[in-house]
Amino acid sequence: MNAKLTKCAAALAFVGTLFLPVSKAEAEILDSSTDGFTFEFSLPVDGHLKLVFDGLTQDIGQWWLADHTWYGRSENMSIRLIPGGCLCEIADEMRFTEHLRVVKVEPHSLVRFSGGLGPLQAEGVDGVMDWSLANNPDEHMTTLTVRYRVGGYTGNDLSRWAPAVENVLQQQMKSFQSYMKR
C-alpha cells in the first residue's frame, strides 16, 4: 500500500510541475571549446512585434541592469540603429564604452551586433550576437531569441566563460521581459 501511495504522490507532484510558470528561459550551449562558444535561448515577451522591438532598442536605459554596466547607471545605455551604430554606455563626454557594434538591422525582426560583451572586450576575441523577434500566432506575444557566438585567441579557456556570459544575458532579457509587462 505504501508503494502505491508513493507512486501516486510522485505522479501528482510531476503533473503539478507542468502548471508552474517557467522562471528561466531554457538556454542551450550549442558548442563550446577553449577557443569559443555559442549559446541560444528564447523567451516570450508581452506585446506585438513592433512594440517589443521598440522597447528592446529604444528603451534599453530603462531595463538594462545597472550591475552589468561599466559606470553603474542603466540610464547611460543606448542603442543607435544606424550603420556603425552601437550598444553604448556614455557616462560623460570623456568616458564611454562601446559594448557592441550594430552591424545589421531588419526592422521589427532582427538586430545583429558584433563584439565582445563585458570582460570579453579586453580579450583577443570577437562575437556576433543576434536579437531575433517573431510574433506568436495571437500577435499579443513575441518570442525573443538571443544567440551569441564568440571566438578568437585568449590565454583563457573560453568554454568556462560560456555559462557566465549566458547567465548575464539571461538576466538582462528577463529584466526586459519584466519591463514589457508594465
From TrEMBL:
Superkingdom per UniProt: Bacteria
Lineage: Bacteria, Pseudomonadati, Pseudomonadota, Gammaproteobacteria, Alteromonadales
Protein's UniProt name: Polyketide cyclase/dehydrase
Endpoints of the signal sequence: 1-27
Keyword terms of this UniProt record: Signal
Cited InterPro entries: START-like_dom_sf
